[in-house]
Every structure is written in C-alpha cells, then in structure tokens.
Design brief:
The structure is a homodimer. The first copy, chain A, has helices at 7-10, 16-22, 30-50, 54-69, 77-84, 87-95, 97-101, 212-219, and strands at 138-147, 158-162, 184-188, 194-200, 205-206, 225-226, 230-236, 239-248, 267-268, 271-272, 281-284, 287-289. The first copy, chain A, is of the alpha/beta class. In chain A, helix 2 packs antiparallel against helix 3 (30-50) and helix 5 runs parallel beside helix 8 (212-219). The interface between A and B is large, with 74 and 73 residues. Chains A, B: One of its GO terms (molecular function) is ferric iron binding.
Chain lengths: 293, 293
C-alpha cells in the first residue's frame, strides 16, 4: 500500500525548513550542524503539526523571556523547565545508554538538579552533615563503593552527598534557618571502600512555583512535588563518575516525580536502627563504579 | 518490505516520552494538551536523535536563561531567537495557510518583528514620516487598498507604516538621533482607497549581535543582516488584517534574509521620480484585503 504525505503538513511550503537548515555556513562544525539542524527540524515540525497560532507563538516567546528574567546565580529556571518536561532525565538516560545496554546494570545515574554546590566540605567518615536545627529523623547512611567489573572495593572514592532539610529547602534557599553547607558533605572511602555519615531521612518537597515552571505545571494540571531523596555524586580518577538520587521506598510521590527522575534501582529502604544513640534509622547503600576503559 | 524501528531510537526507554505526556492532569484543556504534548514529543525526539550530551544540554539551559536576561521592554531576544530559527516566518505561513491555498493570492502577510509600536500617530495622506536627520533617499510611496474578492477600493482602511532610519536603527533604539515616532505613521485611505506618504528608501541592517541571537548566528556561520524593508500593517473592521514587509528588488540580502521573511510578492521596485521637489524616488504599492467571513 502506497504511503502518502500527512495531509496537515502538505499545505505548507515543503522547502522552508530545509532552506533554514541550509542557511548554515561552511564554518559550522559537523556536530553543531547536526544538533542545530535537528533542533530546527523539530521546532518547525512541532509548529506545523499543531498549526501553532501567532498568539500561541507569542505566548511562548513571553514564556521564554520570563525563564531567564527570574533566573540568577541561585535560581536556574531554565534547568527547572527542562526538568519538568523530562529533558534532564532523558539526557541522563542518553549519556548512560551504554550502561543500560549491558545485562548487569551499574548504579544508575540520574539528574544532578540545580542544588548541587561545588563548595561542600570534606568530612570524616562517621561525621554528620546535619549542622542546623530540623524536624527530621536522623539516619546512619553507610555503604561500600565497588568496581563494577571486579566487585572489589574502591578506596579513595569521593562520595559527595547533599539533601534538603525537613522543611524541603536546601541551605542556600534558606539562609535564615540553615548555615552554609548544612546537609552537604564529601566523604572519602577507606581501604575497604566504605563510607558512613549521619544525615536526615529525606522529606518530599515542592519545586518553586512562583515562576514559569509553576505556570507550566499549572497548564499541565500537574503537582510540583518531588519525592523525598538524597543526592549523591561519586567520583574516582580511575572510574566514570556517577550522579544519583536515592528515594525512600514508601514515598507517596515515587510514581509521579515532577522531574521524572525515579528509577527502580534507586529506591531504597530505611530501616529501624538499634544501638546507635545518634540515629533512629539506618540505610545501607552500595555503589558500583564503571572503570574508565 | 517490513519497516523497522530506527536503531538509534530503540536503545532508549520506549515509554518515557508517553509517560511524561500522560502526566498531564484532567484539567488541562484539549488544545493545551495537544500543543504541550507535541512539544514534549519533539523535544524528546530531538534529544534522542542527536544523542544530546549533558554538556550540550547545559549549554542550551544557559543559552535559554541568557535570552530572558538580556530582554527588557525595548528588547525581545526571545522573539529574535525565534526569528533567526525561522519560526516567526513559519507561524505566519501557518496562520495564512488558507490564503496561500487559493489560486489567487492576496497580499502576503509576513512577520511583525519586534519594532512595531502601538503609539504611532495618525498622519494625513501626503505627509512625511521623516522627522529626524538621515542619510537616506526620500521616496514617495502610494497605493490603493482593495477588496480581494471584488477588487473595489476599501475606504477608511488604516495603513500603519514603520521603518528603520538610514543608520539601520528604529526610533526607540536610537534616541540620541531620532525623535519618538520618527519613520512611523498611520494613514487612512480616502474614498478611492488611496494612501500616500513620504518615507525613506530603506537600508539593510544587522540584528543586534551582542546577545544570544548573535551567539546562535555565529554558531551557524550566518550573517545577521536583514534586507532593507518597510513594514506595513493594514487594517479595516470588515477585513482580515495584513502585516507585511516590502523589500527593494535590488537588495543584496533578499536571498539570505536572516529571519527568512522575504516572499516573492513582497519584492517591490522603487523608480526614479520626476516633478516632485520632495522626493527623488517613487514606489507604487497596492494592498488586497480579504473580507472577514
């Protein structure tokens, strides 16, 4: 049976998009040409498929400008919009496609999010990252970093941990209640690949909804909640870095994370802890690292 | 012959995009669902097709934020980015698809651009819109507004005209050289549908390249030039409005307009004018309006 052109596309100039793509000059590198050419194609196909009106396009232009206007050194609304549309999570999947194509899956990477800080201090194993008052439950988190291939411990790996406080805010969003680097810390694994620290059982929280991301979520009739999570970034010179979020298994937003970052192997189980005067809960979490070539 | 899935797409979670689209709640209206669903699909397909890396995605996020950060009441960088990618011109084509589907084509609409002003004053036919010093050639522009169907004159139509000065700048970009509403004016057609005014033979100019649009044009190895043009917006209560740009036929940038707004029937011919002490050039330009319903 012969195929035919989609009727809704055929009424428009069939050469327009290729003309725009072909306007790129000879000094454009091949990767830039590929990425921007594909972007132009999809932007145009989107507009033709929905027959975008001038009013809708202008609404989009105003939205685009508003994203940057509310952003500053402490607020990245562009990243948030990208997250709400699932793009950061998808890019994460793309970057780690090789890992997902193997039978054995190393610890999943997931989105970095806008709350990582380059300034988190090194702390000793067994230290607490809790520096300010809170209403959460203190937990002892510990585990082993291992080589994905050999399953041997990786000594000297850096486990960078960050989390929101029990009010759902990170330190730099909440300077009146939290000191700098509250609930942040870097831990170096010992000779057995072990790390350990005290942190909070995490709390679900809402993305800020006073900007374009809130407008977009409202348009889509979606809640702004992220399931409770702890962020980890694990690195070692000889291994590919892993950026993770881990989620308590009983969180009500696991199935509807507003940034689509939950993966099955990132759901963890906090258990009651006995015999530790500092913590009521315990969490064991091991991390597998893939060697660099 | 059986079709098969594109290999480069099959390695990714085939349900992810539909899950993001299906996250929209029941209160999302059908048009919003259609537009945002299609947008999500194309954004995701783009990322998968080029296998967008985290670094490239983050470059895009920074670019997105920069667009709004340089925009203000007098600068709409979001619209400019959209123009450089051909989107405004495409949306214009979509809105006017019905006109292009008829055999007889009424005066083409084209992009409004960011330089229209709601404050342009009414002037009398035969007046000049030139209020400030310039280095251009004064031209007498005149024509008739007619009904597309009956070809009869349309009396009382408003012809709103705006153009850049000979330095390539519009009045509000150039307050040190131009008074407010220099090279802007609204003219009402007389009983014969006629309008007339003195304006400048237009000059090609560059889009501002000190912001994200300049970055994007540089990446694409494209020049930032627009062919010389005069903007028109023609309206009448009984007719569909037309927004136009007209271009001198000898302009060097007709084939490579950086916002892709040139259409064949918008290319016009300025001719030497004799017997008018105010102008050296003449331009006749008629406009056909489509009746409402």
């Amino acid at each position: 049976m012969a195929t035919r052109a989609t009727p809704c596309l055929s009424r428009f100039n069939p050469h327009f998009t290729q003309n725009v793509i072909d306007a790129m000059g000879p000094k454009t590198g091949p990767r830039t040409r590929q990425v921007l050419g594909c972007l132009i194609k999809h932007v145009h196909d989107f507009a033709r498929e929905v027959e975008l009106t001038t009013d809708e396009w202008m609404m989009g232009v105003r939205f685009l400008n508003a994203v940057g206007q509310i952003s500053d050194a402490k607020r990245n609304e562009g990243q948030r919009i990208s997250d709400v549309l699932g793009l950061e999570s998808l890019v994460d999947e793309i970057e780690h496609k090789l890992a997902t194509e193997t039978d054995e899956i190393p610890t999943s990477s997931t989105i970095l999010g806008p709350f990582w800080s380059p300034n988190a201090p090194f702390r000793d194993n067994g230290d607490s990252i809790i520096m300010s008052p809170h209403k959460g439950q203190v937990s002892l988190m510990r585990g082993r970093v291992m080589d994905f291939v050999t399953k041997k411990p990786v000594a000297g790996a850096v486990v960078d941990i960050w989390q929101a406080s029990s009010n759902g805010k990170y330190d730099f969003q909440d300077p009146e209640n939290q000191v700098d680097n509250n609930l942040r810390g870097k831990f170096r694994t010992d000779g057995e690949g072990l790390y350990s620290l005290y942190c909070l059982h995490p709390t679900p929280y809402s993305l800020p909804t006073d900007g374009p991301a809130g407008v977009l979520l409202n348009l889509m009739d979606r809640h702004p909640m992220r399931p409770a999570h702890i962020h980890l970034m694990v690195g070692h010179d000889n291994y590919k870095p892993v950026t993770n979020q881990i989620f308590p298994k009983d969180d009500p937003y696991l199935e509807s994370d507003t940034v689509f970052a939950v993966k099955d192997d990132l759901v963890v189980d906090f258990h009651p802890l006995e015999g530790d005067q500092n913590a009521k809960l315990g969490l064991e979490y091991d991390i597998l690292l893939v060697p660099r070539d």
